[in-house]
Design a protein that fits this description.
Number of helices: 2
Helix content: 10-25%
Shape: globular
Structural class: mainly beta
CATH superfamily of the largest domain: YVTN repeat-like/Quinoprotein amine dehydrogenase
CATH architecture of the largest domain: 7 Propeller
CATH topology of the largest domain: Methylamine Dehydrogenase, Chain H
Radius of gyration: 25 Å
Number of domains: 2
Number of strands: 31
Distance between the termini: 34 Å
């Protein structure tokens, strides 16, 4: 609202004065009324969507949410607008990690029990071709680089990443198909601009930074105990790493590959992490606490927690609505939650988030406009 005050040059005619009064008197009064009518925080909205048995991982893209169901070997497809499952796709045995390529509209599903990757066509909700054999134990390590159409699969029992060519859905031949990293590979995150991979090495307490085009290790960064997943905010040059061994989040500067401050303490038994790029919030699922921790990127602090159902697991965000989706493994459901800390971090604060100090300032502005108006009138008369 303050940005409506613009210095005006030249003669101050009736039309200009009317604009000043409208900008600084009528509008602020309306804002005060709207502010008083709004709660400081929006009410928590929640919904439950039944899915398959043993939901584990979750991913959102183009208004849909994909859920891997470990027990019944399926992927549930949720229409986010409808709030219900619209398709159930049979995949391989023991599906765990999911990754979506937004450019090809393909969903890649890691099947841990038969060591394959299934490919789903997002347009038809049908499996494409035969499963891709990768011959590694996959738990959480799966990601897609849309800019190169490559899929990266981590070996949780070893120290390698298998590389799949998305144009042929086959593993690259020879040394191009394998990248050696740290011990017990879990979550893999890719930067599609720099083509760097960030690999959480559960057994080493490190993150391997890999040049995905050459397969070379750029650096190895120490983080917390037993890192298992990460999320990248590329424009902010930050990587958030979830450490299940000490229930913390390590924050890395991806320009320098160094830690930013001390790790942030969150809940207990971390199971998932995701990013809301609109609100600049990081969400961490805490399975033992039945909560989601919310981290503000602008302050690099924990803002608070959101209560969930029993045993939250995978977590994702619909960027078009800011809704949070998390899997509830004990009840075979996906829960849809609102962010009660919903004001954006960097950038202006929404009107609904104004506190008493801002309301006082709104009330002062009409008086300030009137004083300035009277002063201009006196100056105009003296000049005449």
């Amino acid at each position: 609202m303050l940005y409506l005050w613009l210095p005006m040059r030249g003669a101050y005619g009736i039309g200009c004065l009317t604009k000043i009064i409208r900008a600084f008197y009528v509008v602020p009064v309306l804002l005060v009324s709207a502010t008083l009518a709004q709660p400081v925080r929006p009410a928590l909205a929640a919904g439950m969507i039944p899915v398959g048995a043993g939901p584990v991982s979750i991913a959102t893209a183009a208004g849909r949410t994909y859920v891997s169901n470990y027990t019944d070997n399926t992927v549930s497809v949720i229409d986010n607008k409808v709030g219900a499952v619209v398709a159930t796709v049979a995949v391989g045995s023991g599906p765990t990690a999911l990754a979506v390529d937004p450019d090809t509209n393909r969903i890649y599903v890691a099947n841990s029990s038969d060591q394959t990757v299934s490919v789903i066509d997002g347009a038809s909700d049908q499996v494409i071709g035969s499963p891709i054999h990768v011959y590694v134990d996959i738990e959480a390590g799966l990601t897609v680089d849309p800019s190169t159409n490559r899929i990266y699969v981590g070996d949780s029992d070893g120290n390698t990443i298998t590389v799949i060519d998305g144009s042929t859905d086959t593993v690259f031949p020879g040394s191009l198909g394998f990248i050696t990293v740290g011990n017990d590979v879990q979550g893999i995150t890719v930067d599609p601009v720099s083509h760097r991979l960030y690999v959480a090495n559960y057994g080493d307490g490190t993150v391997s930074v890999v040049d995905s085009l050459t397969g070379g290790i750029v650096s190895t960064v120490s983080v917390g105990s037993q890192p298992f997943a990460s999320i990248l905010d590329a424009p902010q040059h930050r990587l958030y790493v979830a450490n299940s061994g000490d229930n913390t989040i390590s924050v890395l500067n991806t320009t320098t590959d160094t830690s930013i401050g001390a790790p942030l303490a969150v809940g207990n038994s971390l199971t998932g992490i995701t990013l809301n790029t609109t609100l600049h919030h990081i969400y961490v699922a805490n399975q033992a606490d039945n909560t989601i921790s919310v981290i503000g990127e602008d302050t690099n602090t924990v803002l608070g927690t959101i209560p969930t159902g029993t045993s939250p697991g995978g977590i994702a965000v619909d960027g078009s609505t800011n809704d949070i989706y998390d899997t509830l493994q004990d009840t075979n459901q996906v829960q849809v939650l609102a962010d009660p800390f919903g004001s954006p971090g960097p950038g202006p604060m929404p009107t609904s988030e104004l506190g008493s100090g801002e309301i006082m300032l709104v009330g002062v502005i009409p008086l300030l406009a009137l004083v300035l108006y009277q002063r201009r009138v006196r100056q105009h008369k003296q000049a005449s």
